[in-house]
Amino acid sequence: MQNTNHTRWAEGKLVSFLIATLxxxxxxxxxxxxxxxxxxxLAITTFSYSLGIIALLSAFxxxxxxxxxxxxxxxxxxxLFGYNSVLTGLALTLFLTGPYHWIIALVGAALAALLTATxxxxxxxxxxxxxxxxxxxxxWFTILASYRLEAFRLTSRFVPQDLxxxxxxxxxxxxxxxxxxxxxxxxFFIEGILSGILLFIAVFVAGWKLGLYAVxxxxxxxxxxxxxxxxxTLIYRGLYGYNAILAIIAVSATFNTDHRRFGLLSGIFAxxxxxxxAASIATWxxxxxxxxxxxxxxxxxxxxxxxxxxxxxx
Amino acid sequence: MQNTNHTRWAEGKLVSFLIATLxxxxxxxxxxxxxxxxxxxLAITTFSYSLGIIALLSAFxxxxxxxxxxxxxxxxxxxLFGYNSVLTGLALTLFLTGPYHWIIALVGAALAALLTATxxxxxxxxxxxxxxxxxxxxxWFTILASYRLEAFRLTSRFVPQDLxxxxxxxxxxxxxxxxxxxxxxxxFFIEGILSGILLFIAVFVAGWKLGLYAVxxxxxxxxxxxxxxxxxTLIYRGLYGYNAILAIIAVSATFNTDHRRFGLLSGIFAxxxxxxxAASIATWxxxxxxxxxxxxxxxxxxxxxxxxxxxxxx
Amino acid sequence: MQNTNHTRWAEGKLVSFLIATLxxxxxxxxxxxxxxxxxxxLAITTFSYSLGIIALLSAFxxxxxxxxxxxxxxxxxxxLFGYNSVLTGLALTLFLTGPYHWIIALVGAALAALLTATxxxxxxxxxxxxxxxxxxxxxWFTILASYRLEAFRLTSRFVPQDLxxxxxxxxxxxxxxxxxxxxxxxxFFIEGILSGILLFIAVFVAGWKLGLYAVxxxxxxxxxxxxxxxxxTLIYRGLYGYNAILAIIAVSATFNTDHRRFGLLSGIFAxxxxxxxAASIATWxxxxxxxxxxxxxxxxxxxxxxxxxxxxxx
Lengths: 314, 314, 314
Description:
The structure is a homotrimer.
Chain A: H1 3-26, H2 34-47, H3 49-69, H4 73-77, H5 83-95, E1 96-97, H6 101-123, H7 133-145, E2 153-154, H8 176-186, H9 193-206, H10 208-227, H11 232-236, H12 242-254, H13 263-285, H14 295-310
Antiparallel strand pairs in A: 1-2
Helix pairs in contact in A: 1-2, 1-3, 2-3, 2-9, 3-5, 3-6, 5-6, 5-7, 6-7, 8-9, 8-10, 9-10, 10-12, 10-13, 12-13, 12-14, 13-14
């Protein structure tokens, strides 16, 4: 083989690997689009330079695990080994502290890719996708492990609490503008209106329908959580919104390939349901001080995608 | 088409829908029999007029979800989309309070039907039935959500407790007569001897063997819980009995279609096992103040029905 | 049939049943070898005479459940119905107290065999083995039930604790020699250097490679738990080691039948991962005062065996 030919082949490999990595970032939002991935990366980087690097490295690591492990090329190229790693890398970097926390975050990213593979296999027969369950599990396990291993140092934001001492206090004004843009930011643990706008752009780039769904999901969640009497501080910080955005995209777009009769309605219901689900999961995790992460989205989406197999009109 | 023909067709539809709804009520006891469903409805109504209405509406909603969703007709007509909705409607009406609690209960009933569909799909390959797991999950989630959302107001009966502060106190006399009839009533959250007698009649109407199994299951549970030293107040209120009744009907009758060698014995063991399972689950749920509901029945029945696939003599 | 013929036939049956029972004991270490089973039984008996009897009886009961239930002969002869029963019998004998605790332990052993059958069926399609999950579940359930049923009396070693009051204290010297031999002993809840040596011999008898893996797993776990800052008292008592030994044998040997490219490396990773998993599970169980048992091994092994199906190079 000629040298230039070999260089070109290697360049081709590198480019397709980079595209898979960027798609891994976009798959966090259930979108397979390298440009979307790039804009998301930009949004994260404007919020924090180091977080941007972690996001890229994590997507990279997840994809590498797929390649070395010998996964089928289609899954790798769709970015399916990347998105759980991206979220795990970001979460552990933010949740842990100490000099080596980013190493633990990157090991966690590799582990998330491994668990993605395991769950892909276990759930294959059901035809229901893995979603972000591997990221949630790895992150929860790492936080729990920190109580027993000195090398895992937790930031002070996680406070285990007794449910018997819990008092709900929903007082406080809602800043609806913040709520509108922080919801989408919370998917990537970032805040601020600029990041939010960039993330909405990233979704619209992949398709105007997807963008509208994202807006709709956020509005639905803001209204549902306000009407059901959720804590106002959580609502305006977007903590009731990010799960709804993901759920409506998943149910009405990504996994609605055969255009069911009630496809959009199912997605809106799924988005609404993430609100009480978020409340339930937060209560359940209270004694451990764990965050709900994207678990409400996962449960609501699994519920609808599974039900569709038996109720084909949904 | 002639007008009368069309009317007859619509009448036929309505009748078959009503029968499916009543069968949905009877399926709570793993029985497919509209008359049994009607007598159960009567038993609930004698205990509380409004609960009777909720039970009927919930069965109705569950069946409607199946019809609109486009489920296969056989499942709908067997009442398989109704029974989880009935239980969820009843439980949430009783457990929640406030002016809109019955709306939440009926939404919960719809959700239970949806989750039934999801679980039917996921468990299809195992050949193990869904049982009342969807009802349990929806009810637990709703109770947990109430700690975070003001619209969900819990009655005062649920008290989260630390296991480290727990003291077992089994003192108190057992009223065996109450124990004999409250066990079957607890399946539908109702108490009293009249309701209990009506429920036993409902089962006997479906078959004398089923009736005997129900009696046997209750006796087995009363004895087991007494011998193992369960709390007497729980025993005589039937709280150790209702799971055993369901388990023996499920294992020895409903899902014992091929008449295994140890069919009855398996059912009796399954009924016994619901007692320690009820104790375990109650301990596990203590920090959240959640009720065990029919989870002991579900676990014990899954255990035996699954084991039968590998141990064909059971 | 002649009398001697019949006697020979019965003798043959008895011998093959005894071999199945001994293999049931060896399967705790994922090894199918009657001699290994015998040496393990010896190791348990040198630690405690009565525990030895319980181990033998439990293996016996588990195998009997398989035979009476009508399981396929191959599974029975491989000892697959015995190992969960052995562990359950040992654990419940040690964890419970009172005059009848050994009866509960033996009933638990039978139940573990039943649950093994259930899980074999449920997991059949995934091609992932049941491992010791049935033992873990039955033991946890029994401990939890003891808080509600007077017949189940718990020893004082289980103390439910609030995570909010938890303080990590890793101080204390590590006795590396004890750590080297107690790790393997903890698999069977026994301590002491003699028992440890006998258990290592039992593994080496089944194959020198298996023996080396066991040693390697133990070393890996000791180093990982020390480097990650685990509690020193746990480390030298072998409580971070036993899961690693099982995980490396499972991933690199027992279930590595087709000699994957990274077979040994996967096993070493799986062994490392049992350390943070043990920490996470211990935190999660803290409010219930439950022991982690072999859950870290089960999760780590499931993770790798499942991932291998999608990542064939592992």
